[in-house]
Amino acid sequence: MRLFVCDLLGINDISPETLNLKKLYSKETISTESILIIISPGADPSAELRDLAMEITGKDRYSEVKYFSFLIIKLLKLFRSLWDKVKCK
Hints:
Elements lengths: L1 H8 L11 H8 L17 H12 L9 H22 L1
């Protein structure tokens, strides 16, 4: 099947090339646009992304918020607003 698809499309391989974040950042982005990275299950570019961010911004200007931490903060704000509503009644 793979050979059929490659022959039909006139390409050597149907596998995507490995994502190189540094190359993506330097050649494909501008500072006024965000980058959306869609990954396959099991792929985790977070270490490479962290290393690149520290290299670009400097270790002293880099900070990281884990998604889970973000959710906890969001939930705490939600609970606080609900508590304030209940308390006012």
